[in-house]
Write a structure and sequence with these properties.
Layout (H helix, E strand, L loop, with lengths): L12 H15 L1 H31 L12 H4 L5 H21 L24 H33 L2
Helix pairs in contact: 2-4, 2-5, 4-5
């Protein structure tokens, strides 16, 4: 040692701000998935409603099935199977989107940042929680969006 003090400098405000924004964006990923789910939910409610309205306008009384004395072959007509599949896909997509929006309980240990890979308790660390919850919502919303798009594609095939 030379006996001279070490020179230091204050923390870089630019780097500090970037780290802060990174941490915020990481923690807000789940909120972004919620916003995406809300937008997707709006579309999933609007498009089938509009489609059913247009279908009724185009086909008139043929777009509905009479309730009284319905023969069994009217319940699932062979020529409307694509139409039924379309609405089934939309309903499943809607269910997945709602599942992504529903609160889910996560087992989190707030005293640790990341869980030990060798741990058998199943508890998540704080960082794990943010990543896992965003990943869970993302997976549900990707499948919901794909099913909804497939439903839209099938709806285009039913127009006659």
């Amino acid at each position: 040692m030379t006996g001279q003090p070490l020179t230091t400098r204050p923390p870089d405000t630019y780097g500090k701000k970037l780290r802060e924004k990174y941490i915020e964006s990481f923690a807000n990923q789940s909120d972004l998935m919620d916003k995406l789910a809300q937008q997707l939910l709006t579309l999933e409610l609007a498009i089938p409603g509009l489609y059913a309205t247009v279908l009724k306008l185009i086909r008139g009384n043929e777009a509905t099935v009479p309730v009284n004395n319905v023969p069994s072959e009217w319940l699932i007509p062979k020529d409307n199977s694509v139409l039924y599949l379309t609405f089934a896909l939309w309903i499943v997509a809607l269910g997945l989107t709602l599942a992504a929006l529903m609160p889910r309980e996560w087992k989190v240990n707030p005293t640790i940042m990341e869980r030990d890979p060798k741990s058998t308790t199943g508890e998540l660390g704080i960082k794990d929680f943010f990543a896992q919850s965003a990943r869970y919502k993302r997976n549900l919303l990707v499948v919901a969006a794909l099913l909804f798009f497939l439903g839209i594609t099938l709806a285009a095939l039913t127009v006659s």
